[in-house]
Amino acid sequence: MTRRTALRRSMTEFSKSSARTTETEQSTKEDQDPTMIMAWQPQEEGLRQILQILKESQSPDTATQRAVQQKLEEFNKFPDFNNYLIFVLTKLTTEDEPTRSLSGLILKNNVKAHYEKFLPEVAEFIKQECLSSVGDQSPLIRATVGILITTIASKGDLMTWPELLPALCSMLDSQDYNVCEGAFGALQKICEDSTEYLDSDALNRPLNVLIPKFLQFFRHSSAKIRSHAVACVNQFIINRAQALMVNIDSFIENLFHLATDEDADVRKNVCRALVMLLEVRMDRLLPHMHNIIEYMLQRTQDNDEGVALEACEFWLSLAEQPICKEVLSQHLGRLVPVLVKGMKYSEIDIILLKGDVEEDEMVPDKDEDIKPRFHKSRTHTVRHTEETENGEDDGDDDDGIGEDGSLSDWNLRKCSAAALDCLANVFREELLPVLVPILKEMLFHQEWDIKESGILALGAIAEGCMQGMIPHLSELIPYLIGCLSDKKALVRAITCWTLSRYSHWVVAQPHDNYLKPLMTELLKRVLDPNKRVQEAACSGLATLEEEACTELVPYLGFILETLVFAFSKYQHKNLLILYDAIGTLADSVGHHLNKPDYINLLMPPLIQKWNILKDEDKDLFPLLECLSSVATALQSGFLPYCEPVYRRCVSLVEQTLNQHIANTQSPEQFDAPDKDFMIVALDLLSGLAEGLDGHIEKLVVNSNMMNLLYQCMQDPTPEVRQSSFALLGDLTKACFQHVHPCISEFVPILGQNLNPEMISVCNNATWAIGEISVKLGEETRPYVPLVLTQLIMIINKPNTPKTLLENTAITIGRLGYVCPHDVAPMLQQFVRQWCMSLRNIRDNEEKDSAFRGMCQMITVNPGGIVPDFIFFCDAVASWVNPKDDLKEMFTKILHGFKNQVGEENWKRFSDQFPQQLHERLSTMYGV
């Protein structure tokens, strides 16, 4: 039963019960009479109790707060409790405004939680009172009424309150300022909450009336009302609402009229509108682009930081537009200095960041200072021929732009730095003639905050301007390494980040020149007396580790000693970042970590933390992630620690599943679990399976792992499924004897998850299918129809991410390897995409089995490859060193094709090859 029919039914039942009150009443019309509804009056005693509780709820004492919650729950059992709340909000002018507003906010929470259960006459009374109080004298009460109206509207989809929009709309024309402003405040909140609904046929497209109406108020005498009007229209830009697109020229003209409005909120909304229009209606802005850029240059320097921030977003947005270079080139000389100036810490930033506190390592962290961390579930990826994979990085290293830790709010400094970063990627070296002179002046400035912002700017351009910066780096890097011991903590912190942005270059030079001195200084900063510097140094070290990989092996002892010492020194927040630095180190150096000295250094502090933490402590997440990397790296070296770790992970998965079932069956009694516990535990189990290889078998045999995995694979949360498929693939490789009995239940679930809309889930399911098929061999046949059509659809889908394409190609190849007769008939449908997807990956076992499969399929269905044979030649040439028997297969197919078509046709065909391909095939395969 939908909510709406439930509401209708309760209304009719209420009218029946009213009709029974006197036998003479035939009609139910009177029951709905507004005067009857208005007749409700509060009882003196009831009002006294409610005011009492409103007063108590403002007490800071937690025990009082708890008692208040309990009383509110009891009061909620009385049907007219909500009448009292609306009465206090709208009618009880003898009370102070905060108490009245609080009454409205409690009512709003009740509407959110229980609106469906309100008696119809109560709901009706609240609605009427809201509408009659939209224009209250007090701005606070007007705002509270507006919040209440939009909460009711969003509960009933506006359908159950048809008179609301017309009423508010007509109030806009009121001569009473309070009524007009209150109605606009409510409409702005409705526009924010019900954007799509207002542009739908369900309500007869009220926007057709509202948008022209809002535009009339852009020139109102009150700044507050002008601001509301622009904010309302702004809600409909991104969705390209039809009613707005029809009026787009009028909208833009009115915006230009407001460009120099004296009110900061109006200017802020104008800037916000122009930023969105850039993405949605660039065609309409283009004729005015020169003036808009001039305007935004002024606004980015606005005295009001809120306006400057909105305007600064414009440069970020413009950098993503194809016309950026063309329209912005001539303005770079003025824009770059403005952005660099915006990167300086404001006075308020420095106060909030305690920028004058140099040593705070002994000060414990407050819980609220620790941002929630989001676990990144395991995704199976393929190694590439190029070391770095362009275009698919996680964009995770914006730590300098977001390096403020607790001050994680987006601000002008971060936006300016992000904009400079994006523009550096557009203009590349062309940015440097403008920027280098500015940087030279800033980097050697007497004032620390200017020097600091210069170092931030240097980091921001690292990615885009790298080629142009190379001639300067032999001077700059030693200078920056020197800045790591600056007396100002904020300078030391930003230097860690900026250096990490150039770590690719540093690692490529002779170690003694830069890497050694950088490691030495950076590890000192890991033990800095300032917590912000510790954090920046750990993050910088993690970036350097990813870049240097096994180049770090000579320094491993030194790095580990430092990181382990940091365990005893760090407060709560930085411990979590320390785990990340250790995990990244393990990922980067792999099995080189498996030495008794290193294990004895590293494992005791990690296991000690592991033993202290309770199962429900969220600090387990980063620790489990870290252990997952360490287990994978240490391989057999992790064996002494594996049993308790394995058992706890299985237990975390089981507890989460049980809590999920309990919550599904009795939601009012049991809270929903935090699924992250299960996700991180599954990922650590994957790490164990991968690291311990066959040794995990004896742990699996004595647990209910397969049953738990079966449940996790069907979990509604995508990340849980993603991690469970990764684990399934790793267990398939490590101890297939335990997976084998479950295959008939597992494979159909994998097939159902081959949905490219969920990229990571699909990716891991695809990979697991490939691993299973290699182990199952011919027994895979009955499962091919469950998965093959989906895999072919994915490989041919445009814009599929590279990782998913590669995994799909490998799995199709593996299916063809074990069941060539079942897959080969479809060869023509996927072979071109298949060859293009696998030409860039490194020689490895996965690539080997996939290409063997392709050769088998070509043998079964040679006609399927003919139209795309040139792509096959190209893919074969991507092998650096195939195994002898695979090389023989390639040779046989190439020569077979050449003999089939004849010498002359082959020459015509091979003349199309690029020179490099020609040489490669000739040298390696003699064709």
UniProtKB/TrEMBL annotation:
Official protein name in the record: Importin N-terminal domain-containing protein
InterPro entries xrefs: ARM-like, ARM-type_fold, IMB1_TNPO1-like_TPR, Importin-beta_N, Importin_beta, TPR_IPO4/5
Any one GO molecular function term: small GTPase binding
Keyword Nucleus: yes
Skewed-composition ranges (Basic and acidic residues): 22-32, 363-372
Gene3D superfamilies: Leucine-rich Repeat Variant
GO biological process, any: protein import into nucleus
Subcellular location: Cytoplasm; Nucleus
Annotated Basic residues bias: 373-382
Biased composition (Acidic residues): 388-402
Domain Importin N-terminal: 68-151
Keywords for the protein's UniProt record, in alphabetical order: Cytoplasm, Nucleus, Protein transport, Repeat, Transport
One GO term describing the cellular component: cytoplasm
Composition-biased stretches (Polar residues): 12-21
Region feature (Disordered): 1-33, 363-403
Domain of life: Eukaryota
